[in-house]
Protein 1
Amino acid sequence: MKIGLYKPYVQVYFKENTADHAGWSFEVVNLAKILAKNGHTVDILSDTDLTFFDYANILPAPLSSISSNCKYDRIFAFCGTMNDAVHHDILKCRGLTDRFDLIYTDYKLKPFAYNIFDRIYTQTKNVYAYGALEKLVLFDSKFIEKNAVKDIEFYFGGTERDRLYDIIEYIWRPEVTWHGKSQFFQKNDYISYSENYSLIKRAKYSIVIMDSAYNNVGWVTPRYYENILNDVICFVDNKCDRNNMLVTKHDYRRVGSYFELRDKIKQIDASPLKRESILEKQRQEILPEYLDGSYIYNLLFNVQQRVN
């Protein structure tokens, strides 16, 4: 199949670039690679640093250069900032294919219209079609070496958004290393995705907290898996993941307060066996079909399989 991928408003980087401060590129890049792995030809319809010489069947094809007579078997548009130019691009994509789907990875980045898409894939089982998009970060990934140096006690990277209560509860603490932005705390030391990832690798602990809108619909994000890949013991606030897609309801790593979190960290620090047991359990959660991309591919192409 000939498939187009369109990410609005931003450039898609196939090579590491500090301009990609929010990590939007890996979603597009990894989906492109999954599709190419399965024998499809993929055109990147957005601005990109990709060249014609990088991959045999992943090619740059700026939407502005595509004739209206060109036809695609399928186009996936990613969510993103909407403006008049993006609106025009979305309408053009719709005219280039009979199957136009939305890859909806950020619940707050809503499209200007939902009914223009044939199918909408999400990161929750409660809204539209579940696409396991939070697992895109796992494609072709490898675990950090065991016993890697961990010189950061607790790390969190992210902005205040609509989670100030949880920032105050868990993050604004002396033992927490935090990079991000917060209007309430007059803080702005946001760093690039690659810089953020390098700090995750050095951390012993972190936590998943989300906006109330995400919690209300059971939306999950890649942060949990980024932590697991790097042997960071990842706690999950009780309000998150209402469908238990990341952790079960009674998982030890679920916490409801800072004091519960600190108590569990003390227990883990006091028991090397407990630490190793939790880290091994986390690694086992990453199934082979997540790493080879087949889990996501089968969902997007309606291949029957078990949905975790």
Protein 2
Amino acid sequence: MVAAAVALAGVGGLGGAAGCVRTRRTPDDTLVMVIEAPIKNADPRYAVTSYDFKITKLVAPGLVVIDRPDLEPSLGLAAALDQPDPLTWVATLRDDVRFSDGTPVTADDVKWTFDTITAAGSDSLYHKQYDERLAGVDVLGPRQVRFRLKQPLATFRTDLDLGIVARHAAGADGKFAGGRVVAAGPYVVAEMSETRTVLVANRFASPAPRVPRIVIKVIRDASARIMMLGGGTADLAQNAVRYDLLDDVLYRGRVKELRSPSNVLTYMMFNNDDPVLRDVRVRRALALALDRPAVIRTKLAGRAVLATGLLPPFHWAYAAGVGVFERDLVAAGKLLDEAGYPDPDGPGGRPRLRLSYKTSADQFRLAIARVLAAQLGQVGVEVEVRPFEFNTFFTDIKKGNYQLATMQTAEVVEPDTYFAYFHSSRIPDKANPDVGNRWRYRSADVDALLDAGRHELDRSKRISIYGEVQRRLAEDLPIIPLWHEDNVALVNRDVVDYVVLPNARLGGLARLAKR
């Protein structure tokens, strides 16, 4: 169980006079949130970016929702969810749910939502995921729908987190224009542009959100976001301020910090097809050369926990004691010697080997990359850090055009996420460039475990299976798990009851209030 998000006192200016600061500069009926990149699509079938995904959860909930601190799925639009046999799930809709235009949510809407994703030629990013799982979706009555699976799936309750949208309100192509998705969430998209998204309360939502209007402003400059929070023209920013600048913002006394542990992994990836990096001894040596606690301390202001793998320590399938390693330059040097990369002339001379390290051009991530590269240099590995605009960077990663790189995962709720990232069937190619095994890891044993884990319905047996997966990956090290960065929200002191979730979703916006 994850502890609830806690408010943390800032340093310096939060006592005494700080409590008298007038914090309200935004309208009483409006919450202003600042983010660093625009929201492109609020349709859950076509969400691509992280912010797209988060907004869909406010606009279009699914039969199941994942908005609890323990990340366990709970019923959303469904009143009941039954599994009469391993290949069948039956969902019964709540009788009180209405779309934002007042019409009832029906079983036909549920079937249509899933059918548009699994249809041949669908351009949904989730087509492959659901097409592999579903044999069909049947309407059993106005409020009851049956899902037929191709194979038993332990993951399917979580898969039903997909948002449901209104069939009657879509265009002839099955899509919604201008982000105006008709769904049953607490908020409705009133405006969406490159500079801001405006959400207004869905008057048919139950329970109704406590703040009638949310304005999400796109502020690309990090300093400007800090100034808006400090000056009171913004009410909230979540994971949008550099960790090493947080205390400076808190010092101003207008905002408070809320945070929770995260289920997102920051990792260093290796191209396992690279002639140098295909040798596990080299990968292990690089892992032993990194001083991860120092990065957490200096760059992340202590707001992260060391990672041992894909799953965070609070996850039910986490294997404690597996994949734990500490910096050891002597051991790292010995492994490089064994791999055929001896030190040619002693410390400080010519390098053992040279590697290229690609990263996004984001200044904070670039700064971290340079620290990691310098740490590798201390074991005789010369690393050239090469920053790129994100789209160029990500295209190269998918093509395998890299040696080292650092990235973050999407939220990890189901341990079946291991399948997406490490199964050999998920190595990108021309036909499937967007699948997740971008490090090109191959292991028949791990493939077999991952196949078993997604079809095993007994949770205790799944824990055992994924424990073995974690042990195997800790030995093979196709990536280096670095850390799980805390989710941090900076919130105006007039805002109350906002909860930061481990998956960093924004469901708390529907439950907060301004006093």
Protein 3
Amino acid sequence: MPLDLISATAFVCERMLVEKDDVLSAIRLVDLFYVTEFQIREGKPVPPQPFLGQSLAQAFVSMSLVVNLKAHPGYQASHSLILRIINPAGEEKNINEAPIQADFAAKIPEVPSGFTLIAQLNIQPKVMGNYIVRVLLDGEEVCKAWFGILKHPREEESVH
């Protein structure tokens, strides 16, 4: 049976909670992140450095990526899911090393079957700007998520 998605959603947020009743809660739907700008030393980008009082881990951008796919009621099958990221320079690469098995199933037969993925992303930006995460199911793009990484406004203030 070919896959006919009725909904395909991808977004980023600060974190996801899985409640006791298996209901998901997205915390702080944010898609714009601020970091200190990288510097060039000896022709190579130096990763963002933390501000005074900020830990090195905070120089990374951490977020949860949520992918939710829904098919018509009764649909049950397995598919191959790949996540790809495009950085502001247009460079694209896989996020996951191996395809993820996306098993479509429903606990209640009358409701759409689905697959949900929650992935923790830890990005150390080498380029400021717009990032796009492409979600591919069996090699075909089904949805995208956008987030931006920009120079921290406090850096702008210190220049003036």
Protein 4
Amino acid sequence: MNLNDVGYVLFRDCASKANAVHLHRPKYLSLGISFSHHAAFAIDKGYRELNVFRFIFFFGIVSMLFLLSGCNDTPNSIGKSSLNNGDNGVVMVDTFYATEHSSVRNLLITSSLDRFMIGKYKTYQAWTCLKFYSWPDSLIGVKITSAAIQLKSVSHFGDSLASFSMNIYRGMSNLFATDSLTYDSLNLNSVNSVHGVYYNSTPLSVQTFIPVGDTQSVTINILDTAMIREWFSTNTDSTDLNDGLVIRPTNSNIIKGFYSFYASDTSLTPTLYVTYIDTNGNEQSYSHKGGLSKYVSTVDQASLLTDKNLMYVQNGVSYRGLIAFDSLAKISTLWPVSVYRTVLQVTLNSSQSSGPILNPFVHDSMYALSVGTNGEGDGYAYALSQRSIDSSGRPVYSFEIRSMAVRWLANASIRKLALEGYNESSNFDLHAVYGSVPDKKLKPRIIITYSIQR
């Protein structure tokens, strides 16, 4: 058997111990280890005569080369090629500007919030629907002698020192039938009988005590207890005896926020206090905190959307900004690409936004939301803003929106996003944001870091 016929396996990488190179004699000789003709003949003779000597020689050569090779942390030619000329190519940073913008109305779902709104301020209005229910069985059918509702105030929008007043109406069967109730529907209250669709149009006889201040309680004494006695007549209301209340503001300079049944601190939730006569003829007191609430709101659109160059992100009503970036189609033609970072930046017009004097921001933050083809949030992605100041002193809001950009660049049918105010259902913050104006320093922009995949 000649050495030309002998294969040697050399372990070249002691870190992995897994890469093997199969070497024949010419490659072996290129390592600088050579044998004379006589040495080779002797080895061949040894292989023919002693299998043991052949094994020892083979093992010794492999061991020697393994030890001489050592550990090599430097990438080989393949590794260097991957590091220097990767599959993703050159990393690029580009800026793309908004191609169009608008302010769009959004339906608020307020039935699960920790507060509701009542009041009027300028052209803003907020009405509340309130319902207490699920009484203790021991109180079913008792004689109610007095009743009062207490609401705990938490916030205000407008003049905190302004007077606050309201009318209260008995709700009808449609009031809590759906979460899609709007201000327009409630305000119109289309009459198809002596009662309205949503509430009885005759106000209840009440007496209110309304102190000034965000942390004060409003007390509503219900003077005619006939409605309350009907409420307490059953827990299985099949004849619409208890469809709650509609609270409609009659003031003009303040909207108040009140804690709802979803407030984490139950001492702050709406409370119904009743006095009643028990079976022994004694007068007793009872307080009840179980119920439902929601509010509907509006603002005169013409008084809000006064500048076509701006997007109005209005909480409490609500309006959202909608921005299109069709300019990103340029990168889509290069797909597939690797997107490393994508930052949206928008600039605030402070003169038309919530200000520091009468109506300061409750939360000076916004969300960027992914939207579907109808322009409404689709739940795919969102990002919270970070606020900074530019060289001209204007507030700038930045959002990391990489996941949205990846979807857009994969040839999505729409390249738009929406701006939503932080906690938009719980306050009346207003961000007036520059849209697709000619001045690029003001125009919404996307700064994207990416590379073209090879």
